Amino acid sequence: MPLSVLKKYWGYDAFRPLQREIIDSVLEGRDTLGLLPTGGGKSITFQVPAMLLPGLTVVVTPLISLMKDQVDNLRQRDIRAVHFHSGLTRRETELNLTRCRLGKAKLAYLSPERLQNDSFMAELRTMTVSLIVVDEAHCISQWGYDFRPSYLKVVRLRETAGEEVPILALTASATPEVTADIMRSLRFREPKVYARSFTRDNLSYIVRYADFKENTLLRVLRATTGCGIVYVRSRRRCREIADLLRREGISAEFYHAGLDPEEKDLRQNLWKEDSVRIMVATNAFGMGIDKPDVRTVVHYDLPSSLEEYYQEAGRAGRDGRESFAVVITSPRDKATLSRRLSESFPDKEFISHVYELAGNFLGVAVGEGYGMLYEFNFDLFCRTYSLPPAPTRSALTLLSRAGYFEYIDETTSRSRLMVIMRKDQLYDLELTPDAEEVFQCVLRNYTGLFADYVYISELVIARSTCLSSERVYQALLYLGRIHAVHYVPRRTTPYIYYSTSRELPKHVIMPLEVYERQRERMALRLEAMKSFAFNTSECRVRGMLRYFGESDAQDCGKCDVCRSRRKSADTPETTRSLRESIVYQASREGGCSVETIISNCQSPREQTIQTIRDLADKGIVRIDGHTVIAAKIQ
């Protein structure tokens, strides 16, 4: 039956490795932990059981944007799904709860802060929950790189739904300590653990050292074909690098959390459709992006942990074909990584000061605020009190971990609209000219408006009506005031949810587990990242796999460290002869297939493949799928 569900709704004829085993374990009622690498198909492991189980499947995920994308995708497959997060209006929340109560939803996605809402949990208690899913499960572990205190409330779901309801925890990257902590925190009973190796045989991990990174980036992108991602750490650098690539004739766009939702969708679709080759992005880009043919992922700036790096680099080569994960680094990056530790853990006095100022900024009196949700304009907050952004954001995160409030730092919602007036009443409406034109445009271009909230774009409506975006916005507000529609404008403001009443600053205490021990763990993660990037004596993959608990890993033979060893072992004559043979064959019209080159050369297969990669790195040849083509030396 799982296979028939997969075929019916997704059109696939077979499961990926470990998907079926995880699904069977869940259907048997077992608590299950799935460790599947990025692109391993984690969502299928709970979406298929959700269609087979009688009640509701509840999915906890911290990524609101990914949550909305998954719900939209499921609805397109005729699978009934809803979501609950702080960006919804009361009306939307009630509508989704009604669907769950009436059995008109098979999956309900929750953001973790909803678990702290007693009235919401009381509503869940009236429903039949058949499966609890914890996505990005490393967030529940205080050993994890992305620990979120609200995730500790997930265990309330088990108490609410019943101890017999199984839990499925999923993550793409976790050390052995994190894995054990996940199962302990979720109170697993006789757990089943399914883990795929972190090895990606088709990925070559390469580190390039450069004082001038721009030139190295251009060489890497010119030596490879196909689409790619370049990861940076700041929004400003996103734009700068994208501009550089375009000036050099490389098709590129940039993507970060500060873009309007419509602009994000446009750029993401251009990249997915191969109209743009390279996406320059912060870590806001990539989660849930299912593009299998990414050939190159470049890290222009180093992430703060191997977990983050592995997930981002793993977006290359999901189709199993040869791909590259390249780090471009310089000696200055060591100091940059060290500085992140102090930025992530500012002085405790500064943290207390930020807590006090946040309460003042929001107008929350001491002893008040419990259970209240407030919009929080972070940029305005920093400008108002002349606060440095990086340590201030870290202070808010630490206050969240300590349980003083929940800081939700994410662009949360696109504009949406539902018609609330009966159809027969619409004929008697007397509207202003702008409202009439906008309303007619909405009714023509969007379906399902009378039954549910539908995402709309003021920009698209403005272009269709030849009105300015401001006039469209005012017309929609007018339609809302006369109760023809319920209009929820786009919001890009973070939130603060007070999980306790506001305290005096002197009572704000950072627990040992939240501050000192987390600081120590981050220091270890930073050291592991430094070792990966700057240690030239050990295979890159072997060191990374050991970090993830695979102590018996062998040298990959493909990373830059392994390649340099092999080069030193080869005689100059044999190396030169092999290189010349490859270049000669690749110079034919249309190039030459990799398999043909291997069969024509007298060298071992692996050595020939590595030499082809070396030549591609230097821009002497290009690898286009399974074909090697001679190129000019850049």
UniProtKB/TrEMBL annotation:
One of its GO terms (cellular component) is bacterial nucleoid. It catalyses: Couples ATP hydrolysis with the unwinding of duplex DNA by translocating in the 3'-5' direction. InterPro entries: DEAD/DEAH_box_helicase_dom, DNA/RNA_helicase_DEAH_CS, DNA_helicase_ATP-dep_RecQ, Helicase_ATP-bd, Helicase_C-like, P-loop_NTPase, RecQ_Zn-bd, WH-like_DNA-bd_sf. The keyword Plastid does not apply. GO terms for molecular function: 3'-5' DNA helicase activity; ATP binding; DNA binding; four-way junction helicase activity; hydrolase activity; metal ion binding. GO terms for biological process: DNA recombination; DNA repair. The keyword Metal-binding applies. Residues 23-192 form the Helicase ATP-binding domain. Keywords: ATP-binding, DNA-binding, Helicase, Hydrolase, Isomerase, Metal-binding, Nucleotide-binding. Residues 216-363 form the Helicase C-terminal domain. Belongs to the helicase family. RecQ subfamily. This is ATP-dependent DNA helicase RecQ. Its EC number is 5.6.2.4.
